[in-house]
Amino acid sequence: MGTDGSAEGIPWQPPSAVEQRLYDAANSADWDTFLAVLAGTDLFLPTSRELADATAGSGRPFPYTPFHDERFKGLSLPVWTRGALPRPVADRVFERVELQHLARALPRSIRWLALNPGTPAETYLPADTRRWRKAARHPVAEDQLKTLWNGPRSGPLAHGMACGALLMVNNGAPWNQLGWQSGGYSEERALLRRWWGVGGRPGWQRMQQRLLRCEVISPAWEFVLRVRQAMILEYGAVPGPGQWRETTERVVLSRTADVVDRTGKPPGFDLDADIALVQDVIGRVLRYEARFRADGLLDQGACVRSVVSWDLGRASCMARWGLGARYSSVAETEAAVLRTGAVARQAYRSWSEFAMGYVLGRCLHFDSEGFGDWYTEMREAHRILSTHQESPWLSVPWEQETADRTER
Predict the structure, then answer these.
(1) How far apart, in whole angstroms, are the C-alpha atoms of residue 39 and residue 93?
(2) What pTM value is reported for the model?
(3) In this structure, is the dihedral angle defined by the CA atoms of residues 258, 259, 261 and 267, taken in order, positive or negative?
(4) Vertex 322, ends 321 and 323: CA angle to 5°?
(5) 89 has which bridge partners?
(6) d(Cα 322, Cα 63) in Å, to the nearest integer?
(7) What percent of the chain clears pLDDT 70, i.e. is strictly above it?
(8) pLDDT single digits (tens) 179-190
């Protein structure tokens, strides 16, 4: 095992807390702790994209790709921890597994587990599946907020990634991983198809652009919030519920009259139904905001500015999901993440404002005022991101910092 980790006198820096714990346990020969850490994290098996595509949906076992290392007798199976994964390339992908799965399914011909081969933390473990199963009963759990220490942690790219942090933290995924591999290649494809109806590159491109243009959220949600923001700008205070409702109805009626005057025809929609819809949305927003204040997510007297962050937060994630599924390139993913951050800065003034728009959008979409998991998950993710020492909300400025770029 390589534990020196130095290159030209520079000590090796672990890419995340997982690799740090593994490194420390190996250096102290504490193999019980080493295996417990390994049992509590995701592992990734390499394969060719062609082979993964050929195997997908066939019901066949995952195709292992063992190799022979002349230093060890017998075959070795390469696996990587999340932080040690190499940069994504088009024709090589990774599938996610757990140590417990390997303990059950490892072929008998494999004698060694080659963990993070070719890195300074390379470790070869004997294929003692009984010991692996024992470790899996008492795993060392990871933090819910995961940070790659070798990933972007400042600057515009980190800001764009942090726009997806609520969802990443909720899913237990690293908030700043560009080469998205957290679910594995096949798993990412399956999730995109199931949740988003995205089954290929064209579908991913269309959905990515719709999210960046904030076209997936309901127009009615954003409409009523914009009416309220206009009233705040005009009167200098948050309007009361009655005033907000009356003004919103007047705006709907005025816009309808404009359509009739312009076309000379009756509106092609049910005006009464539209008024009822926006009044219902206002009521839902007010009740959610009251709950947000009671739970400490929203300051007293404050209100949600906009819900476009519900689309923008998902746009940040969609960019990386697309890379994990190989529907996008690294360059496309970076561009989409950067665009996410730029659009978010135009709509909001702080992480707090962005976060509350995201939480409200998620609740309006999924929760139906049940205040169930769709809400409580976000309340917990919000708490973590508001307090965790590695939270990007505490380390990545909302406003882009301008550095002195004087040429020397």
Answers:
(1) 22
(2) 0.92
(3) negative
(4) 90
(5) 92
(6) 23
(7) 95
(8) 877 789 999 999
Residue range 48-93, pLDDT digits in tens = 999 999 888 777 767 789 999 999 999 999 999 999 999 898 899 9
Residues 6+ apart with CB under 8 A from 52: 63, 93, 95, 185, 186
Nearest to 388, CA basis, from 164, 98, 175: 175
Write out the chain in H/E/C secondary structure.
CCCCCCECCECCCCCCHHHHHHHHHHHCCCHHHHHHHHHCCCEEEEEEHHHHHHHCCCCCCCCCCCEECCCCCCEEEEEEEHHHCCCCECCEEEEEECHHHHHHHCCCCEEEEEECCCCCCCEEEECCHHHHHHHHCCCCCCCCCECCCCCCCCHHHHHHHHCCHHHHHHCCCECCCCCCCCCCHHHHHHHHHHHHCCCCHHHHHHHHHHHHCCCCCCHHHHHHHHHHHHHHHHHCCCCCHHHHHHHHHHHHHHHHHHHHHHHCCCCCCCHHHHHHHHHHHHHHHHHHHHHHHHCCCCCCCCCCCCCHHHHHHHHHHHHHHHHHCCCCCHHHHHHHHHHHHHHHHHHCCCHHHHHHHHHHHHHHHHHCCCCCHHHHHHHHHHHHHHHCCCCHHHHCCCCCCCCCCCCC
The owner of tokens 């962005």 is: 354
What gap in Å lies between CA 243 and CA 234, rounded to an integer? 13
